[in-house]
Amino acid sequence: MPHPEPGGRRTVSGMPEGLAQAHVERFNNAVTSGDWSPFVEALHPDAVMRFVGVPAGPRRGREAIAAAYAAEPPDDTIGIAGVRADGERDVVDFAWSRGGSGTLTLRYLDGQVVELTVTTSMARPRPGR
Q: Which residues pair with 86 in a beta bridge?
């Protein structure tokens, strides 16, 4: 459940709201640099990545997610339109830089992303077709 933080910021399961923004920043940096290491290292070892709206995944485990990004890296960044708490998850509304939109649902464990689900309104480049 969300918990208030000093200054009005909320947390999800005790995690700072900024974790969702940091996740998106790591994703965008990886897209532009081609270095997926910082993005993948921020995932929990048992992380699960799912896609809704595109035929990809799911990928289970940090290594499987890393392999999917190495084999087929996305080439489009995302911009955050909003972040909200939904129970124990952060839901990020986003827009692809080349058009289209979606949501990214993140759940955390020990300060790392343990579950991520990408729901998109149009097919964009993605790992693990």
A: 89
Within a domain: residue 128?
no
> Half-sphere exposure of residue 27, counting CA atoms within 13 Å on the CB side?
24
Among candidate residues 101, 113, 117, the one with its CA nearest the CA of residue 62? 113
Give the DSSP H or E segment for 26. Answer: helix 18-33
52: number of Cβ within 10 Å: 13
Asked if residue 49 lies in contact with residue 59, where contact means CB atoms within 8 angstroms, the answer is: yes
| 12 falls within a domain | yes
SS3 breakdown of the chain: % helix, strand, coil, rounded to 5?
25, 45, 30
Global confidence as pTM: 0.80
Say what the pLDDT of residue 125 is.
47
The tens digit of pLDDT for each residue in 75-114 reads: 999 999 999 988 889 999 999 999 999 999 999 998 899 9
**Any domain includes 106:** yes
Neighbours of 106 (CB within 10 A): 20
Contact 81, 93 (CB under 8 A): yes
